[in-house]
Design goal:
heterodimer; A: mainly alpha; two-stranded antiparallel sheet; 2 strands; 2% strand; globular; B: alpha/beta; seven-stranded mixed beta sheet; six-stranded antiparallel beta sheet; 18 strands
Chain lengths: 185, 545
């Protein structure tokens, strides 16, 4: 999906509102006229995100909020996203696996940026804060089986029904493994 | 700051959790005047639901419930902690979490509503371990049922599935159906092991009950049921208030005043958030402030009359700290997809290890296969393994549908050396010392946990499990108990079989702090039953002399 300039403008405003406010669900800027202050990094972030998720469609409002949160928490992410974008363009990388491998090979620190981008889109978290919960991609890809906590809508005792079977995956990891730290309860 | 109020009631209760609020409800409906003093603020469910949804660390049960400077509670189960300071060889095993809020800690319980077994009250007599309670199962049975009706407990038909605690009436509601994951686990246990799976009795609606809806399976019993299908203490607060009980939030009791003879309590004193001091007098007093805070308050009230603390002539206030220490493992099943997390959090239990002759040497326990949504866990795990894009999505689906988490509640024993004291260095905003606990796991519990690990290993093998992740060490299950232990001998116990303090005839304690042993199964139903029995005693004494 090509990124429309208007999408970036509107989502940028929405992201600012979402980041500054209490709501976890960013809203679009509505009918207010866009303010022409576009972060060119956002377009690169969206392009890299499409590649790293192997997805043609991603919500630009969510993307703007994720990018804003990520860069606020870790300013070097801006340059790292740009570096990933350059790799993607220079080598015409198509798949997530290609870009992730090329990124880690070029600069080990890019792995952290890739992790942040994955955590952003799939968990809906940026800079340690929730940007979206219900609409995070991890729930999109499991919605045929399970509801996000606090959002069940299956009716009484839906949980007794048989959920879908899942085949053992055959795909390989693209990045080197990292320690998995379980957060405290 | 002197008080400008003159508060007084027949019965003054400290703490608004399940125990305090249910006593208040019983007494006010019998025509008695009641004041309940709650250290924390009045709160509402939707605020917590919103907090949860905005919480990055979703498994943090304390996370959605920030505390106030005047009534701090532990921010998490980390050690060291900013409020509950634990020391000793097993300090981390006693890093309990609880809430100081109107309605109490059941804001984030799982609704598991076990009765203890008759043997749990007679551990010393039957197995030569620990202590006997100063009451029997039969003494408590009518109050167990009253508590089940109050909370709305669903459970199995005892003629089909006997949980070992004799019942005179059936459960108020039919048992909750097992989830698909729970049912598959039940089949495995039935076919491949000598053990069994039972339906866990739960304070959760399987039909509309007490003005609350049927459970919809939001899978968020902990930390917050979004719809109130699960009972918590706030409902007893609402009922008691509707009947005329006075609940005062942000009232931090810091002193228990007695008469010249030190035989009767005459008043309690509390601070408001600005440290204005208020006196509340009454005929009877009940401390129902959670195991940790109850002992803290008694110790805090030390003065010339009682230099070691109120109700503490035995020296046992703050001693005998117990819990259900847990063993926990997470692994990836190699069998069919289970998709845990569809429905309530805890539906099924292996109950074979709750009692047996072996209790003369190792503690009892029960096992949960937790029905917890694993999507977030799976996502973090798959990202850490290095997956991206399409391969990441395959991994998330596989791991979320195949992750299994087992944990246990293992029985502790009362040991006077395991002791709560007041911190000499750490204080809250009102200048009240933080609690600190020395804890060393009893070998009885360690042997029980060893047994659990061997059972878990068998289960992992049966499910062709891989990627085992054992929670390091021993972890607390937030069931602290024993700090004002019950007994017949005033020389080594704090309260008698009716939860009346040996030292002060009009001072009662309603909390897991009175437990003489901790049995197995979540403690809340027993806390509620004990509280309702205290209410019954107070009604008899106040209404009939």
């Amino acid at each position: 999906m090509s990124l429309m300039r208007r999408d970036v403008l509107l989502s940028g405003i929405g992201a600012l509102a979402a980041w500054g406010g209490a709501s976890a669900e960013p809203a679009l800027g509505g009918s207010a006229p866009p303010v022409p202050a576009v972060d060119p990094g956002l377009a690169r972030f969206m392009a890299v995100s499409h590649c790293l998720t192997d997805r043609t469609e991603l919500d630009t409002a969510v993307g703007a909020a994720l990018y804003a949160g990520m860069v606020e928490a870790t300013p070097e992410r801006r340059a790292q996203v740009a570096a990933l974008y350059d790799l993607q363009e220079k080598h015409r990388l198509i798949t997530a696996s290609e870009l992730a491998k090329a990124g880690e090979k070029a600069d080990k620190s890019l792995k952290d940026a890739i992790h942040d981008i994955m955590i952003g889109w799939y968990r809906g978290v940026a800079g340690g804060k929730v940007v979206v919960y219900r609409t995070a991609l991890m729930f999109d890809i499991t919605k045929d089986a399970i509801y996000p906590k606090t959002y069940a809508a299956g009716g009484p005792f839906y949980w007794t029904t048989k959920p879908p079977e899942v085949a053992r995956p055959t795909g390989l990891p693209a990045l080197s493994p990292s320690p998995f730290v379980v957060e405290p309860t | 700051m002197p008080s400008d109020q003159n508060l007084s009631a027949d019965v003054v209760i400290v703490g608004s959790g399940v125990a305090g609020s249910s006593i208040a409800n019983e007494l006010v409906r019998a025509g008695l005047s009641v004041i309940v003093l709650e250290a924390g603020p009045r709160v509402d469910r939707q605020h917590f639901v919103e907090n949860f949804r905005n919480l990055e660390n979703k498994p943090s049960y304390q996370g959605p419930f920030p505390s106030t400077p005047w009534a701090p509670h532990p921010p998490n189960q980390m050690s060291p902690n900013k409020y509950l300071h634990t020391t000793g060889p097993d300090a981390e095993a006693y890093q309990q979490a609880y809430l100081r809020l109107m309605g109490g800690t059941t804001w984030h319980w799982a609704g598991c509503a076990w009765r203890y077994l008759p043997s749990d009250f007679e551990l010393k007599t039957r197995y030569g371990q620990g202590r006997d309670w100063a009451l029997t199962y039969d003494d408590l049975e009518p109050f167990y049922y009253q508590a089940e009706v109050m909370m709305g407990v669903c459970g199995p038909d005892p003629s089909v599935e006997d949980l070992g605690s004799p019942r005179r009436q059936p459960y108020p509601m039919e048992a909750l159906p097992l989830s698909y994951a729970g049912e598959e686990f039940r089949k495995l246990i039935t076919e491949k092991t000598p053990w069994r799976i039972v339906h866990e009795p739960q304070a959760r609606n399987t039909r509309p009950y007490d003005g609350r809806p049927t459970c919809e399976g939001h899978n968020n019993c902990m930390p917050i049921c979004p719809i109130g299908a699960m009972y918590n203490g706030s409902y007893s607060v609402y009922h008691a208030e509707a009947a005329g009980a006075q609940f005062i939030p942000n009232a931090v009791v810091y002193r228990i005043e007695r008469d010249a003879a030190n035989k009767k309590v005459t008043a309690v004193h509390y601070y408001d958030p600005d440290k204005g001091s208020h006196r509340v007098s009454g005929k009877y007093f009940v401390i129902a402030a959670h195991c940790i805070e109850t002992a803290k308050l008694l110790l805090l009230s030390a003065d010339e009359q009682s230099p070691d603390g109120v109700a503490n002539s035995s020296g046992h206030v703050g001693r005998n700290m117990m819990d259900h220490t847990g063993v926990q493992v997470t692994f990836i099943s190699g069998d069919k997809a289970l998709w845990p997390g569809r429905g309530p959090l805890e539906t099924n239990v292996i109950d074979n290890f709750r009692d047996g002759t072996w209790r003369n040497e190792r503690g009892a326990y029960l096992v949960h296969m937790v029905d917890d949504n694993q999507v977030d866990f799976a996502t973090q795990l798959a990202i850490s393994k290095g997956y991206v894009g399409r391969e990441l999505e395959e991994q998330i689906r596989y791991l979320a549908s195949h992750t299994v988490r087992l944990f246990s509640h293992n029985e502790a024993l009362p040991d006077p050396e395991n002791r709560l004291t007041l911190s000499k260095t750490e204080k809250d905003a009102l200048g009240i010392p933080h609690p600190q606990v020395y804890y060393k796991l009893p070998q009885y519990t360690v042997r029980s946990c060893d047994h659990t690990r061997s059972v878990f290993k068998q289960l992992i093998h049966l499910m062709h499990g891989t990627d085992e992740e054992w929670t390091p060490g021993y972890f607390p299950q937030d069931h602290p108990s024993g700090s004002t232990i019950m007994g017949v001998d005033p020389r080594d116990s704090v309260v008698d079989g009716h939860c009346r303090t040996h030292d002060h005839e009009n001072l009662f304690i309603a909390s897991s702090s009175v437990f003489s042993t901790v049995g197995t199964g979540n403690i809340t139903l027993t806390v509620a039953a004990i509280a309702l029995r205290v209410a019954d005693t107070l009604k008899k004494e106040l209404l009939h002399g």
